[in-house]
Amino acid sequence: MVNKLEKCLHPMLAKRDQRWFCHKIQTEMKKQGLGYLILQAPYNVFYATGYTSLVGSSAAVVPAEGDVHLLISTLESADAYANTQNVDVREFMSWVFIDNGSEESRRDKGDVMDPDAIIHICLDLIKNTPMDGKVGIEMGGVSHHFYSALTEALPAGMVVDGSNVTRNCRVVKCQWEIDMLKLAAQEADKAWRAMIGEIKPGMPAWKLDAMFTYYGAKLNLEHGTASRGHTFIPAAGPYYGLCGMPRGYILKAGDIIKFDVGYQYLGYWSDIARTFAVGGTAPDEALELYDILYRANRLGVGMLKPGVAMRDIYHAIREEVEKSSLVPKYPRGHMGHSIGSGVGPEEYPTIAPGTDYVLEPNMVVCLETPYSGTGNAPVCGGFNLEDTHVITTDGHESFTTMPDNIFWK
Predict the structure, then answer these.
(1) In the prediction, which pLDDT does 53 show?
(2) What is the architecture, at CATH level 2, of domain 13-170?
(3) What is the pTM of this model?
(4) Which of 40, 48, 84, 221 is the most buried (most CB within 10 A)?
(5) Where do the structural domains in the chain lie, given as residue ranges?
(6) For residue 228, is pLDDT > 80?
């Protein structure tokens, strides 16, 4: 029995309409003939319930009708209850001693949780509240043991892959999600703008990470967040990798720095990118490349409106870049993507040549024109120009706007 402390949601999280999320998932489930959907990926548990598990041992069981069930250990169950609304919180014993006065809470538990606890609760829910339809699971994200236990306990053919239910749900956002994505993008932009005055030649590259963490944390004092981490993908000088440049690298005048991704707020990603020249100088080729990428990016942004196919935006951007003599071939896999609260900032669908998806209101997309060069490339290092935009009824609104030059004047 969950110790039901009083509700104490973060003010912004309290504005999240759990019924909207539940209804959206259930509508998609009915299209796919599902009576139940079991979610275990932490980001999907959050999407379905509004709760982020810090331990990770959790699941959401979504019935075709009624409230979502959040399955969580006693280590987090009181917090889960206090931080959710219109969610049925069901707990199972953790290895941590939490005394609630009952004999059950005081018995010896060992040093691990029952690995089948979630399975037992799932089966109990399914068997005791039967509904028409099959049971969907995240096929690529569950253990063989979990899958076997369900298929052995339920009729043949009842367990099916439901992985694309939440993927499809995420494409169009509600206003609360749009607000969170806007906040995340704008705070990342503020943090980077606060940094650039302190970036000097002779500085070790590791300071870039530390400065972003510092300025991001200062900004976060204004409103707080349920997400405690950040993702910062910098590139500097000749180092372009998505894993970040060597932290011991010493910045030089004329080095190009790429800032990419950013903070999460209440589970929602930011993914914007900026490119900056150290010391107020840059090679002519770098200046030319920035202008090429900027023009192509703004061309793509100008196409963001309902009814436009994402593949058409891709081709327009690529053709614009390839008009240049500096980058005659620009075989990018995509020129942007949807964004939300998924496993990473890049969500389905993407602005790619094979994407038939047509833009519609309340989609949120990141449009980007990156470049990475090494060896005999005309410019070595990492560049990216990226902003986040929401599609409106007659066009788009940009959450952030990149500088029109590499010196951020």
Answers:
(1) 86
(2) 3-Layer(aba) Sandwich (3.40)
(3) 0.93
(4) 48
(5) 13-170, 175-398
(6) no
